[in-house]
Amino acid sequence: MPVTALVSVKSSGVTASSLALTLASKRPSLLAECDPAGGTIRAGLLAGQAGAGYGLYHLARAERTGLEALANAFASHLWPLDPGGHRKLLPGLTDPAQAAALARTWDALADVLHIMAEQAGYDVFVDGGRLALEAGRLHPIFTPAPLLYRADLVLLVVRGTEQSLTLARHVLPVLRAELQEQGSGGDALALLLIEDGGFRAHRVAEVLGAPVLAALPYDPGPAHYLTAGGRPPRGYGRSPLLLHARTATEHIGAAAARRRIHQHYPRPAASSQVAGILQRLNLQHPQAGVSGG
Question: Residues 51, 261: contact at Cβ < 8 Å?
Fold first, then answer.
């Protein structure tokens, strides 16, 4: 299964899209909320159920002890998004000031995420938040660049509006060049279109010079629930957003498989020690999760 990173230039719906894909996947799925500007799912969809004792920040300290400690921390800091625990969340930072502590953790976390995808068969999604640039490159602290470099696919989330496309047009060349130089190749980059505005997929691809791999409808009710929490809107489980998100996960999986075959990607080597630790993911948290159905 692939590791797919989602990013944006400005508020384009990365978190709602990431959650929709995670909850709609037909396979076990995992969302790592890795926005250096801070996570919002803890206070939004989870309504504060997961306290500050859970989440991404705690992995930084563990990583300094070693990969085994990181894998242990990773397994123990996941939060279930459904009662069966088949959909999991690594909650994000509670304070943007914590981002600097993760600069040396991203690479090791990328190893663990790929083990989850390749060894445990999870669809893994990374909410990378809003891209930050410095001197024409990805910012080393305010963008989780190593996670983007190591991802099977990087999806820039855009809306079908003039403003969104204008902003994306200036960032795409930088992101593509970085993936070409330090990642798995510029062809890892594609677009996820939120169908809000007058530009349709073929026109968006033409304007930005990048393929639209998947599209999600503009569905304000379910999207608001995913970002703000509260009571699910009526028909949420059968909403256009989740129905299209399920189709999108299939497109993403197929595209990643084609890339892997074409480029003969080596599969990540998982130590038996780390793989064994990650088997703990089958254990249930005592708290109830958030249902996606």
Answer: no
